[in-house]
Every structure is written in C-alpha cells, then in structure tokens.
Amino acid sequence: MSHSPSPTLSLRWRLGWNLRNGRLTLYCGLAIVLGWCLLALCAPWIAPFDPLMQNGELRLAAPSLAHPFGTDNFGRDVLSRVIWGARTDLQMALIGVIFPFLLGTCIGAISGYIGGLLDNACMRLIDIVLAFPFLVLMLAIMAILGPGLGSFYIAMALVGWVSYARLIRSQILVLKESDFALAARSLGFSHRRTLFGHLLPNALFGSVVFCMSDAVLVLLNGAAVSYLGLGVQPPTPEWGSMVAEGQSFITSAWWICTFPGLAVVTLAMGFSLLADGVAERLGDRS
Amino acid sequence: MNLARYRFVLIRPLQLLPVLLGISIITFVLVRSIPGDPARVLLGARSTPDAIQKIRAQFGLDEPIWVQYLYFLKNLLNGDLGKSLLYKIDALPLIASRIEPTLMLVLGSVLLALLIAVPLAILAARNKGGWTDNLIRLFTTAGLGLPAFWLGLMLILLFSVHWGLFPVSGYGRTWADKMHHLVLPCLTIALALSAVLVRNLRASILLEMQADHVTAARARGLGEGALLRRHILPNSMVPTINLLAVNIGWLISGTVVIESLFSLPGIGQLLVRGIFTRDYMVVQGVAMVLACATVAVNFIADVATTALDPRVKIQ
Amino acid sequence: MSTPLLQVRELSVIARNGPREITLVERLSFDLGQGEILGLVGESGSGKTLACRALMRLLPSPNLRIEGKSVHLAGHDLLQLDEAGMRRLRGRELGMIFQNPSSHLDPLMRIGEQIAEGIRLHQGASRREARAEAIEVLRQVGIPDPKARVDNYPHEFSGGMRQRAMIAVALGCNPKVLIADEPTTALDVTVQAQILRLLLELRDRRGLSMILISHDLGVVAQTCDSIAVMYAGRLCEHGAKHQLLAHPRHPYSAGLLACHPAAQRQVRLMTTIAGQPPLLDALPPGCRFEPRCAQALPLCREQLPELRESGPGHRLACHTPLLAAGLS
C-alpha cells in the first residue's frame, strides 16, 4: 500500500511549503546558520592559520591585517580558532539536540500510547527532572562522568529529553483518539505499526519546530559548560572555552574573548530567527 | 476576604512530597553513580583500609541499595548532607552560608528585568509593527541568544575597565558595597531575562488591549494612561508571573555561570568549585537545595497568582 | 419635542480593505429626544452596533473610518472634537453597555472600584465619596445588599447581576444618553425582562435617553418609543413604535415583523425572508433589499431609494411602500 490511512504529513513537503512562503526572519536565520555551516565545513581552506599553531613572538597581538581578530596569549590566530570552533559548536548544537529528541520522543510516544501506570510514572519522573535547574543537573551529571564532549552529550540527553517527551506525549494522547488511529487498529495493524507508523509521524511536527529553538539553548549551554571548563577541553578550539581563556586578559587584550562570543551570538540568533520564522509561517497557516 | 481560596497553601506542600522524594532519589542515584568505592571517595586521600572499613559500616555501605537509600533519607531529615572534603565542614551549613549572594542575585535580576521589560513591552505593544517594535524585537532575539558569560564580560569591559564604574568581581562587606558589586551581575542576567519577558508581556498586552473590558473602560472615558495602569497591565502581569516561575530553573542556571564569572561567593560558585575538586557531597547538596528552591518558587508563584487574580482556584 | 438631545446627520463608517473601500454604515441620520428610547433593529451585520461604536468614536479596528456631516450632543459636534475632548464626553454624556457583561467587566477589579473609576473621573469625587456613590448606584440597579456586593469581583456575580453591575458602571458616570448594545441577548428570558424593566425605570427616574440595539423585536416592542430599522448599513424605516409595529410600510420591516414568533401564532411554519442580505462589497446598484423583495419594480433595481419623510414623525426609504392603513 503506497499511502497509509493516516493524513501523514510529509515533513519535507510542509517545510518546503513554509520556505516558499518564507519571510525575512526565516531567510535571515537560514542564511546565518547555513553560513556558519559552510565556514565550519570549509575551515581547513578558509582559516588563514593553523588554529593550534603557537607563535611565541606574536602573543596578545591586537587585530591587524594579518590577524583580523588578533592573537591570543599563545600567539594563536583568533580568527582561525573562531572558524575552526564553528565545527565544534555546530556539532555540539546538532548532537545536543538529536539525543534528547530521540530519547524524549521514544519515552513520550510510548508513555502516551500505553497510558495507565507507565504514563503516570513517566509524568512523575518528568516533574522531578523539571524540578532541577537545567544546568545544575547537567553539571551534577557531568561531575560524575568527568569533563569532555561525550559527557556533555550524555548529560544533555539525560536532562533535555523531558521537553520532547511532554510535547510528543500530549500529541499522541490526542491522536490516539482520532479516527485514523482507530482505522489503523481496525485494519489489524500491530500496536508498534500504529504507533510508529501512523501516530508518531503526525505527532512529530511540533517537536521538530521546537528543536530549532532548543538548538539555541543547547548551544548556549554547551558554550557555558565549556566556559566553566567542563566541556570541550583545550587546546581544541571552541567558542565558550576561548572566552574563558581570554577572560584573564580582558583588560589588555579584549579581542580574545570578544570575537568568539560574537560568534556564539550570531549562531544563536540564526537559530532563533529560524525557529521564529518557521513558527510564524505555521501560525499564519493554522 | 475569601480565605478558602488560600487553603491550598496548606495542602500543596503535602502534594509536593512525592516530587521532593523524587529529588532525593535522583541525588542519591547521582552520588552512587560516582565511579569507584564511595567510601574511598568520601575519605579522599586519607583512605586506609581501616578507615574505609569504618566508613562502610558507618554509612551502611554493605547493606542493600534500598537500605542505603533509607539511611541517606534519614540523614537528610536530620539535615545531614555529608561533609565537604575541601572545607572540612558539614555541607549543609556550608551551603547555607552561601545562600545570601545567590538570593540577592536572583532577586536583583528579577527586579531589574521587570524594570527593563515592562516599559519596553508597553512601548512595543503601543507601536505594534512600527520601527520601535521591530527594534525591541531585535533586542529580544539578540537577548535570547546572548551567552551570559560573554555578556557579563562585555559589561565588565565597558563599565569596569573602560568607565571604572563598578568592581570587576567579588562581593562586598557592607550592604552598600554588596549592592555595588551586584549591579553588573544582576544586569547581565536581567538583560537576558527581560528578553524573555518582553516577548510574552508584549503579546499579553496586545491581547488585553483588544479585551472587551478595556473597550468598556474606554467607553467610560478613561485615558490611555489610566487604561494601561488600571486595566491592561494588571491583567497582563498574571501570565508574566507564571512565566517567571517557569523560568526560575533557567534563572538559577544563569546564576551558576554568572557567579563563576564575577567570583560571587554564592551557591553556584560552590557547585562549580565542588565539581572541580570532586567534592561530591557539596555537589549533591547544592543540586538538592537548588531543586527544592525551584519547587518552592513555583509554590510561591501559585500563591502570588492567587493573590493577583481573584478567579484562580488552585486545587 | 424641542431640539433633540442627540442629532445624527449622515454618519457613515467606511472600511478600508487594501485599495478598496467598503461602506459599512451609510449616511445614517436620526434624532433622539430627551427621555426617548430608540430601538435600532436589524439583522446581524446590518451595521447597528458599528453605528453606535461610531457615535462613541470607538471603532473596533484601525481600518475603519468615520465620515459624516455632524453628530450634535450637548452643544458639541462629536465629529469635530479632538480625542481628548471626545474622552471627556465618553461616559459623562454618552454611556455604553454591552451584550456580554462577563467579558466587559475587568475580572481583576472589584465591582465597586470599576463604578467608582467613572465617578472619580467625571465628578472629581474623592475615593470615599465615590465608594458611597457606587453603593448608591448599585442599589439603584437593584443589586441586593449593595454594601457587601460593592467589594465583590465580577466572577462572583451571576449573569443577570453582572449585567446590572455593568449598567451601574455606566450609570456611575451619569450619562445623558445610554447606548445599550444587545443588553439582554446573553441572558435568559426572566432575567431579560427584569433588565428591560430596570432600563425603563432608569429612564423614568433619571430622564435618560437610550439607544437600544437589538435584533429581537419583542425586546424593542416592550421598551422603545420609536424604532429604526436598518438593512445592509442603511436606515430603511424610522418611526414611532406603535405605528411601525402596527403598520410597517417598508417591505423589510414587514418581513421582520412577520418573522417574529409572537406575530404568527396561528401559522405552523416559521415565516422567513427568502434569501440572504447582500454582501457589502458587492452591493446591487438599486435598493439593497430588492433581490429579496416581493414588491420589487424595475425602478427598485436601478435607483437607490432615499430616506424621506413619509408622514408625521415617520421616515421611509422605499419606492414601493406598503399601504399605510392609518393614513387612509
């Protein structure tokens, strides 16, 4: 059977629709995010210097033609480090969103579909996780796992899944009662096929939109964790840890922490414009 | 006065017990997931086989895990969160001594954020679609994307390094001195927080401006200022209070970073330092205290909403 | 009747929709005497509410615009006043009560305070005086135990009580003209009668003039002195109540009357007027009622009938009026 009895949205189609009718917000956001992605992909060719190359003679050099963003306390080119940092930070935002999304979607879908005691337990668990301030719980988990990107992803997944679970669960609860869910069941489809084949694709859309605004938070969190020294470890170029390194030289060399910070701001703004634009297009439509 | 509406003030804490219990379970699990022998971790460098044996017996580490949890709970109820390895004192009094700066930071930021957000939201709503509105919208979009640690540094660069108005870091002794030290940290958090508030407040002001009761008040001859002050703002503040409560976890997360940045001797700084020094008892204690604080703030917000909105009945 | 209290001349409300302009209320003219109650009747969408909003200069959307010759009230021309001058008149000269009392009262403000707000604004009373006055007004609109009720919030009132409270809020400003926009539509029948009786009482006691907007002829018949019938943004007939109810001359008025359940006790089926009112952006060139009119002549299709004096105190806009039994 080529088409299912559910009004399964084709995600690509919906997004495509929105892009065609996109507004300034959406395009700006998209341009910024894609621009950073391009920079990150082409880092080896675009960056003028090796981000790790130290130069003892050029410590704390102010921005100049050769080093537009100046150099840091090891004489490394800040511009090249910012460009290479895009790789780490984009990866952080991407993976930091995907893990909670997958975990939350599974838990939320199953909890909402099965209901009863399991659903109750899940909701209580969500309440409890939400009681902890986000970053505090993340830091507490990372304290146990030890610093590093890997533990950041794990902590992110363990803490971040709740928003997705709640979103998906509420969608599934509504869809479960709808006609096409009953139709799918009466056609003799298994629970698994009904849930994952028919209900979930319809429930997913809201959380995909949420992903984009969540990316802002994940990016900021990742940068903050690295700033605190628990995330990406030096000398890997990462914007948050670059700001932390530059902090000691704030009075003499403002450029070391200013430019990586600006990079975070632009990327975060790109994500939020993107999220706003998509939400706006959807709001207009419904 | 209708006191029956406030009955939940007595009942709600009982309903919150499961959440508090859940918080204790999570912190217990966190501490138990520390790699290695907890006794060895507890003793740190002083771990001799003898001492380890003693600690194991003392904390019941030989017992099954759920018995251990009960021990943990019993200690918790006695106010015993364990000992800090770094400071060599009980974790609870240590945390308590650090509450003041954090509390001041949170209160100051919320106050400052409201001072920034309310006028901006009114301005944006009044000029909906105009260039002021778009400018404010740009500010909120930027504010949401500003990393707090970087914004704080930029403020230091401007206000402390460039103009020398405020101290770079630390916390004073006298009240005036403390306030002086708190201005920049509060401003940092308030700028980001007000971005969230402006967006929502603007939307609810716009909604209220269209409300029937505002039209009725206008038909009574009220001027725009009185309308705003007496009818539109009170009605749009109710959702804003709830928004603040929802964001309290995010706010506390912000203080952790900001306290490290400005070297404020608050709970957040204690947490970060505890993580680096592997002071697990402190980390666990701070996480638990902050979680309880979040729950408490949400409870307070419920009371505030009830006081503000006479229609609300909380079950 | 000497000079009327309120004199409306050729009031129009125009909506701008992109480059196109749609006239929603067209050249409305009428007089309202001291102590007179005028019933404004018409189907929903006929522009009666919008006309009254235009009198208050409180249009619901910035895309709407008022045009007209003049609206005279208490020595002012409302169309010439600036916003500040208009604000001084709102409430004090022109009060308004609305269809849905629940949404038109501020949920966060005590009833007494909402009444006192207008009193303090227009009479410059102190807080204490305004509160005493508010209790008095509440008593006048028939709220039992006004001393206790003055501190209640709107949600603590029942529907009928809320409507009384809203009337009290409007009365607190002591207006000369009260516009009542479907004041009883949201209420059940017994309460409806009570509120109408209250409005009549207030007219007798305070000499209040009223414009009562309603789609319910029964309500209008119980209360009004004169009736104005609107169709598709235009006034089609205006006259004294008894004459208009007994001998409607405009086919639309006659149709409305025939549709009223009370008028057709013997008939089994409800009578209706066939067809739909025209869309205001695609009006026929002639009489707007022509497509639905049984009396229509070719002339009706070509020429829009103007509103003309057709008898003492009676105005009519129709080429083919029904015979006036009273005149023959």
From TrEMBL, chain A:
Keyword Phosphoprotein: no
Membrane spanning residue stretches: 24-47, 90-113, 125-145, 151-168, 199-232, 252-275
One GO location term (cellular component): plasma membrane
Residues of the signal peptide: none
Keywords: Cell membrane, Membrane, Transmembrane, Transmembrane helix, Transport
Domain ABC transmembrane type-1, chain residue ranges per copy: 86-275
Domain of life where this protein originates: Bacteria
InterPro entries: BP-dependent_transpt_permease, MetI-like, MetI-like_sf
Membrane topology, record value: Multi-pass membrane protein
GO biological process, one term: transmembrane transport
Entry's localization field: Cell membrane
PANTHER family named among the record's database cross-references: D,D-DIPEPTIDE TRANSPORT SYSTEM PERMEASE PROTEIN DDPC-RELATED (PTHR43386:SF1), OLIGOPEPTIDE TRANSPORT SYSTEM PERMEASE PROTEIN APPC (PTHR43386)
Family in the record: Belongs to the binding-protein-dependent transport system permease family.
Name of the protein: Dipeptide transport system permease protein DppC
Organism of origin: Pseudomonas wadenswilerensis
UniProtKB/TrEMBL annotation, chain B:
Location in or out of the cell: Cell membrane
Similarity field: Belongs to the binding-protein-dependent transport system permease family. OppBC subfamily.
Coiled-coil ranges (or none): none
Domain ABC transmembrane type-1: 99-301
Record keywords, A-Z: Cell membrane, Membrane, Transmembrane, Transmembrane helix, Transport
InterPro entries assigned: BPD_transp_1_N, MetI-like, MetI-like_sf
Name of the molecule in the record: Glutathione transport system permease protein GsiC
From TrEMBL, chain C:
Predominant cellular place of this UniProt entry's protein: membrane
Matching Gene3D superfamilies: P-loop containing nucleotide triphosphate hydrolases
EC nos: 7.4.2.9
Keywords in alphabetical order: ATP-binding, Cell inner membrane, Cell membrane, Membrane, Nucleotide-binding, Translocase, Transport
Topology term for the membrane: Peripheral membrane protein
Alphabetical list of InterPro entries matching this protein: AAA+_ATPase (IPR003593), ABC_Ni/Peptide_Import (IPR050388), ABC_transporter-like_ATP-bd (IPR003439), ABC_transporter-like_CS (IPR017871), Oligopep_ABC_C (IPR013563), P-loop_NTPase (IPR027417)
Compartments in which it is found: Cell inner membrane
GO biological process, one term: peptide transport
Gene Ontology molecular function terms on file: ATP binding; ATP hydrolysis activity
Record function comment: Part of the ABC transporter DppABCDF involved in the uptake of various di/tripeptides. Is also involved in the uptake of phaseolotoxin, a toxic tripeptide inhibiting the enzyme ornithine carbamoyltransferase. Responsible for energy coupling to the transport system.
Protein's UniProt name: ABC-type dipeptide transporter
Species name: Pseudomonas wadenswilerensis
